[in-house]
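Final report, closing paragraph on structural work. Over the funding period we assembled a curated collection of sequence-structure pairs, and we close with a single example.
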Amino acid sequence: MKVLLIESKPSQASELNKQLAAEGHEVVHCSDDHGGPCRGVDHHAACPLEQSVDLAILTREPESPHTLAEMGSICASRHRVPLVVVDPTQIDDELPNATVAAAIANRSVESAYAAAVRRELSHLPTVVEVQRLADSVRVHLQLPASENTAAARSAAADRARFAVRAHDPFVQQIDVSVACYPD
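Its predicted structure, as stored:
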C-alpha cells in the first residue's frame, strides 16, 4: 500500500515511518529535501499526489496548533485520499494496522462520493454503491424498473459522472454501471 506520511513537526513520525516500511508499505512524503512543506512547488510532478496514494497519515499531537508542515493533509483531502490523524506518541495504540486504517478511512471517502451521487439523483429512488480504486471511481446505480429505458439509464449515468467529477475534480477515471430493480 502507498502511504503518504505527513508530519506536523520534522522527524516526528520517524518511528511510524520505519514501522510502515517494515510492514512492506511504500511511504512517501510531502516535505521537500530542504524542510519545506511541499516538494511539488518547484516541479509539480514531484508531488506524491500526482500518483495514486492509498492512505494519508497526519501525525500531530492532540491540542497542538496546526502547522504549515501539515499542508499535505489539505491536499490529500482535496484529492479525496483517505486521511487518518494519529498522535505520534501513541502510534501502537492508535494505528495497529495501516491496512485496517485505510479500509476505515476509505469507507468514509466512498460514502462521500455516494452522497454526492444521491444528491444529484435525488428525484429517483436510487441505490448507489461506490468503490474508490487507485486511479478511478466505480459507481453502480440501481434504478427502479420504471426507469428501464436506454435514455433514462444513460441520463442517470451522466448525472452520476457529473456528481463524482464535481465532488472530485482530480479523479482520473469514472466508471458507472446502471441496473434496474423491480418496482
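The chain has a mean pLDDT of 89. The beta strands are 2-7, 26-29, 55-59, 83-86, 127-132, 136-144, 173-181. We thank the funder for supporting this effort.
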